[in-house]
């Protein structure tokens, strides 16, 4: 008897759903067109020591495959581009995020003179 009741209820549910389909929510068209964020250009620091704020410095050639470059955000925090890829034009992908507490630097970055990074490696002075 229970089997017959289950069959009848499933038949009633199927017909009810066919007569009154679920209404889906209307899809809203985007109100704003996509505009890519502009890329921040960072100058190449060729001096000795850490790069000043808003600059980048080349890593040593032996570690370049892992760390790519060292960047200093506009607030002066040092970052390494470990998980990033850099095109020959110097465009960094994905965006660069400063992990320092309280810093809100999160930008798409272009490294100026990226193609000429090895030509100007500074020599470390002997002490």
Portion of residues within helices: 10-25%
Mean pLDDT: 83
Q: Stretches where pLDDT falls below 50 for ≥5 residues? A: none
Number of DSSP E strands:
8
For the structure shown, list the relevant keywords.
single chain, 127 residues, alpha/beta, six-stranded mixed beta sheet, two-stranded antiparallel sheet, 2 helices, 8 strands, elongated
Describe the structure.
It is elongated, with a radius of gyration of 28 Å. Strands 4-3-2-1-8-7 form a six-stranded mixed beta sheet, with no helix packed on it. The protein has 127 residues and is an alpha/beta fold. The N and C termini lie far apart (97 Å). It has two helices and eight strands; from the N terminus they run H-E-E-H-E-E-E-E-E-E. Helix content is 17%, strand content 23%.
Layout of helices and strands, plus pairs?
Blueprint: H1 2-19, E1 39-44, E2 55-58, H2 64-67, E3 69-72, E4 78-80, E5 85-86, E6 92-93, E7 96-97, E8 106-111
Parallel strand pairs: 1-2, 1-8
Antiparallel strand pairs: 2-3, 3-4, 5-6, 7-8
Describe the structure concisely for a colleague:
The protein is of the alpha/beta class and 127 residues long.
């Amino acid at each position: 008897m229970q089997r017959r009741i289950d069959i009848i209820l499933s038949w009633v549910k199927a017909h009810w759903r066919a007569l009154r389909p679920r209404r889906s929510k209307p899809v809203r068209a985007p109100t704003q067109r996509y505009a890519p964020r502009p890329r921040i250009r960072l100058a190449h620091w060729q001096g000795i020591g850490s790069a000043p704020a808003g600059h980048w410095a080349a890593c040593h050639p032996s570690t370049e495959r892992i760390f790519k470059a060292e960047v200093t955000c506009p607030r002066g925090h040092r970052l390494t581009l470990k998980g990033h890829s850099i095109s020959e034009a110097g465009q960094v992908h994905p965006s660069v995020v400063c992990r320092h507490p309280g810093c809100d630097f999160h930008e798409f970055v272009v490294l100026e003179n990226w193609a000429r990074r090895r030509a100007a490696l500074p020599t470390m002075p002997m002490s």
